[in-house]
Amino acid sequence: MRDRDGLEDLLATFGHDPLTRRQLVGRAGLGFGALTAAGFLAACGSSDKKSSGQIKQGGTVTIGAEEDAYVLKGDGANVGQYPLNANIFEGLVRMDPSYGIIPVLATSWTVRGDTWRFVLRQGVKMHNGQPFDAKSVKYSFDRIAAQGGGTPGFKKGGTKIVDPYTVDVTPAFPNLRLLEQIVHPENYIVADGTDPVAQPTGTGPFSYGSYQRQQQLVVNRYAGYWGTPARLDKIIFKFLPENNARRLALQSKDVDLILGVQSADAANLKQNGFAVYVSPAGAYEAMYQNIGGKKGHTLLQDSNVRHAIEYAIDRDALISGVFNGQAVAEQTMVPSRVLGDQASKVIGYKYDQAMAMQLLDTAGWKAGGDGTRSKGGKPLEISLISGFPSAAVHTGVPEFVQDQLKRVGIAVKIVKTSDSAAYDARTKSLDGDLWLERGNQNDANPSFLPALLFSKKGLFGPGDYQTMFAPGGAFETVINKSLSAPDENQVKSLVADAMHTLIDEDAIVVPLAGVPQIAASSAKVKGFVAQPSTLQVRYDRLALST
Hints:
It is a single chain. About 30% of the residues lie in helices and about 20% in strands. The protein is built from 17 helices and 21 strands. It has helices spanning about 1-15, 20-25, 40-45, 135-145, 180, 245-250, 265-270, 305-310, 315-320, 335-340, 355-360, 395-405, 420-430, 450-455, 465-470, 475-485, 490-505, and strands spanning about 55, 60-65, 95, 100-105, 105-110, 115-120, 160-165, 165-170, 205-210, 215-220, 235-240, 255-260, 275-290, 375, 380, 380-390, 410-415, 435-440, 510-520, 525, 545. The strands form 5 sheets. Strands 9-10-11-2-12-19-13-18-16-17 form a 10-stranded mixed beta sheet, sandwiched between helices. Strands 5-6-8-7 form a 4-stranded antiparallel beta sheet, covered by helices on one side. The protein is globular and about 75 Å long.
């Protein structure tokens, strides 16, 4: 299948020792055949072998990308890194489709106590001609430390040069998940002393060409790349935040490939001759229930109401209807294959409207003549904020949830946010009951998302999410223990236990579906491989046919 073909292509690109394959395909504890959403993935997958024409060297591909959310100021400036990884930069390691670790600019690593030692790849040059070495790593990690350390916990003075091609990294706290976290593009290596906005400079297969805010980013093939050089001469990323705008641009041939295809559009594009690429599920569609009680949002502090909402939603109908069958029935926060056999600890919820109504009766909410329940003269009305990263991503989901909850007597007011900035502003105001998000497993650390969003301690310290959603108690103990567990199977077990508490017992997270990443292109584009995390997409094998 395509993802296995894509992995072999990646392995060929990097020229890895076959001994690393245990990590590459074994981490999830499942074979690649278990990663797809049944027939749809098989129907939509496409490969060079199925298309006419030979691969040619060179040429330009224009890609319709989503929102331009690059940071342009300070140590956090990240043009070309995140959220669109344009392959200008590389990390010490990267992540494969099954969340395994692939060596890139580091060839090996060891951990001694709290310190990680990385042996670096030699003979690599930055795009400006300066050598990649230990100074490059120190500069990059110190830059992240100046921002607060990021998820790995880089600290001032924590990265030390041992010799020109060896560095020691001691994070601010004991962190045995550091290797799994540095696959994120925000932890990639930047050429020391360069301006990350005016001239983003890394070691990747493409070098920076030009950038126009909210319009486009242009990258060029880097002929001096240490690995297999890219096939294309140039890629133009056009920022088209609206889903329909990207689709129309592809259909009108203004762009050659589009990212972030909506499930409702995928089948139609396929029928009209476009290649459609579907990853294994790497994102999740879920709602978070505000238990904080701030700003008058107290209704979901009642566990019976939270559990009623879980039972009231027909997830199979959501997947077959709103998602057009292009999602999977997962009720874990991270892709279940990340947890392997331990995922069975998370039970989830079957659709049971009678149970939902029974729980609401128990909580004292009585059915009313208008269909909305009430207690003490107050209607059972909650607000649903849609959602991260934007309301457009969740098209159809809020309305589906609204209809489902209405059937058990819960009135839902939908509030749509235009983009991630608007959503962030809403979270800061703590104004909402249900928060609809599409999260993504963007690093290889199973603990990352549960700890980031729901730990009172928080990976970056307490914030708005902790105020609204953090349960404390057993969840807090277990998720923090998972961050320092030395054994991979122990980590998976602890994270599964934490999610069992978060989902099954406390009903703070309402999992709706596991969602793949979908892209589409014209028939002339070859070599694209969809990834569960869009941050890990490689464009160096992208090509045009003759």
